Amino acid sequence: MVEFTVYLDDPSVPQGLSYGSDSSFSISDSGVLRVESTGHVRHYAPGYWQQVHEVKSQGWSSQQQ
Fold it and tell me: What's the domain of life for this entry (predicted)?
């Protein structure tokens, strides 16, 4: 697993939400972002989440909606 940051269309959270290596995410065909972290699951609607940046040991990658 990798660390990642979810960037939202929310000016009150410009730095995004960071998740540790114990977390995971997936993106459904309909664009819903599902994040599982420390036993909790959060769903982010299409249009609310903007980007997911993965932090890997050899750099980073980005996925956009």
Answer: Bacteria
Extract long-range pairs of 24-32: CB within 8 Å, 24+ residues apart: 25/52, 27/52, 27/63, 31/65
Integer Cα distance of 4 and 21 in angstroms: 8
Mode of pairing for the β-strands spanning 59-64 and 49-56: antiparallel
Instruction: Write down the domain spans for the chain.
Output: 3-64
Angle at 36 between CA 40 and CA 17, to 5 degrees: 95
What is the rounded distance in angstroms from the CA atom of residue 7 to the CA atom of residue 9? Answer: 7
Report, as an integer, the average pLDDT of 29-33. Answer: 97
